[in-house]
What does this fold into?
Amino acid sequence: MHAWLKPGGTAFVGDIPDLARMWHFYSGNEYKQAFIESVEIGKPIIGTWFDVTFLMTAAQYVGFKGVQVMKQPSWMFSSLCFRPPAYNVIFNI
It folds into this structure.
């Protein structure tokens, strides 16, 4: 993504599942079991959950000068339905 942006460019990535809150989403034993089983067969229900620190570190490593992490606003579609806790990230060159 960094290589695609022009100098001064900005990229927005939304609906990133928040690793720190994963077990809040999979709160019941039935949900935890379903998640673990999906990982065991190589097909996680949600996909990859990310840690905020990892994303910020990786973004800076590849050359982004600015990284802004925001909690998913409650008015966004994914916050209005049964979706995992998420955040949005803005990357700046």
The chain has one domain: 9-92. The mean pLDDT is 84. The beta strands are 10-17, 66-71, 86-92.
